[in-house]
Design goal:
It is built from 2 helices and 28 strands. With 389 residues, it is mostly beta strands. The strands form 7 sheets. Strands 2-1-28-27 form a 4-stranded antiparallel sheet, with no helix packed on it. Strands 3-4-5-6 form a 4-stranded antiparallel sheet, with no helix packed on it. InterPro entries: RCC1-like_dom (IPR058923), RCC1/BLIP-II (IPR009091), Reg_chr_condens (IPR000408), Ub-ligase/GTPase-reg (IPR051709).
């Protein structure tokens, strides 16, 4: 009789100088390694990372964290590095719906629509009193008056969508660029606020979700429109201006008139998935992060959305700072910056076009996530054992 046991495992690879791979060591890994998260029997709902830390959400809504913690970004009540995944206890035993990690802070969305934040507040990115420099305890952002449905941490700024479809922004990570670009015009409040501030110019239709780069913002509306604002230094806003203070609709003709079903952002590039399953990329291309050959240094080619056919029908996409992962047909593909081995192919050479990760080719991928320079994937391996009859 043949019995097949399906074993799921969390694989991590790439930069690891703070123990963010959860492997009990601090050495970079150029190939996927099996990480323990202490609850192997339970599956995960989401995985992601920040500048030097990682976060997992279990099916039951528990938050597990590891890695860099010098600003308390792990929310564990202390500021020591953590080399293995540990449970982050939230006040009021709340359960977690979504987690988004910035450079040195973490934004936590609970199942009841509350937002908590921990880590550095040097740019007001925690959305709490600016007097607090940092916190190792997750603190509730009290000024968000209605339930939140989506959050996104950029490098040093944050976006949130409320149940009624409004978008709030806080953290001053875009302020210096905004001042330079808009001078002598005043900077809109949402770019300079250290507490949640309603983003103006999105009144036409309700927002569904948000994503953020190092100095830009993106919002996907219920009707499949994309609005972009912030820095356009790398053509990531698909416009001529160097900076857009207010949300500006992405011209749908650039996407063949299709509605967008999901939007993802690295530090300086964006990826859109359309309703028909097409995947288009644009923005900075210097490390292969667009997943396509950009022939010239002419920025017009990279600042126009262009399809990456290998990724057609991807079920999931995750962006790190300058590298990406995707699940296509149950397989994990990677591309982009690879200096720390975060593409997982065993090399340190940048990957220009999406490639399946060799060591995970026999696994079925369930979930993927990226930090700034590291990668995570939950995969199931099928072990068939012939036990005779």
């Amino acid at each position: 009789m043949e019995t097949s046991t399906i074993k799921c495992a969390l694989y991590t690879w790439g930069a690891n100088s703070f123990g963010q791979l959860g492997l009990k060591n601090a050495e970079d890994q150029v190939k996927p390694q099996c990480a323990e998260y202490g609850q192997e029997a339970r599956t995960l709902r989401a995985i992601t990372g920040g500048g030097g830390h990682s976060a997992l959400i279990t099916e039951s809504g528990e938050l597990l964290v590891c890695g860099q913690n010098h600003k308390g970004q792990l929310g564990l009540g202390h500021v020591s590095e953590v080399m293995t995944f540990q449970l982050c206890q939230l006040p009021g035993s709340r359960t977690v719906q979504q987690v988004s990690c910035g450079w040195d802070f973490t934004i936590i969305l609970t199942d009841d629509g509350h937002v908590l934040a921990c880590g550095s507040n040097a740019f007001g990115q925690l959305g709490i009193s600016p007097q607090t420099q940092y916190t190792a305890q997750p603190l509730l952002i009290t000024s968000l008056r209605e339930p939140v449905i989506s959050v996104a941490a950029g490098l040093r700024h944050v976006l949130a969508v409320t149940g009624s479809g409004g978008v709030y922004q806080w953290g001053t990570g875009l302020l210096s660029q905004a001042k330079r670009a808009l001078n002598p015009q005043p900077v809109p409040a949402h770019l300079s606020s250290k507490e949640p501030c309603l983003v103006t110019g999105l009144d036409q239709e309700p927002a569904k979700c948000v994503t953020a780069g190092s100095a830009h913002c993106a919002c996907l509306t219920v009707s499949g429109e994309v609005f972009l604002w912030g820095s356009n230094k790398h053509g990531q806003l698909c416009r001529k201006e160097t900076f857009l203070p207010l949300p500006t609709a992405l011209d749908r003709s650039l996407l063949n008139g299709e509605r967008v079903s999901a939007i993802h952002s690295g530090w300086t590039h964006l990826i859109a998935q359309t309703e028909s399953g097409r995947v288009l990329t644009w923005g900075r291309a210097s490390y292969g992060q667009l997943g396509r050959q950009v022939t010239t240094n002419d920025s017009t080619e990279s600042s126009l959305p262009s399809e990456v056919r290998t990724l057609h029908g991807a079920s999931q996409i995750a962006c790190g700072s300058e590298h990406n992962l995707a699940i296509v047909g149950n397989q994990v593909f990677s591309w982009g910056w690879n200096e720390h081995g975060m593409c997982g192919d065993g090399s340190l050479c940048d990957v220009i076009q999406p490639q399946p990760i060799p060591d995970l080719q026999n696994a079925k991928a369930l979930l993927i996530g990226c930090g700034a320079g590291h990668s995570l994937a939950l995969c199931c391996l099928k072990n068939s054992e012939d036990t005779g009859s």
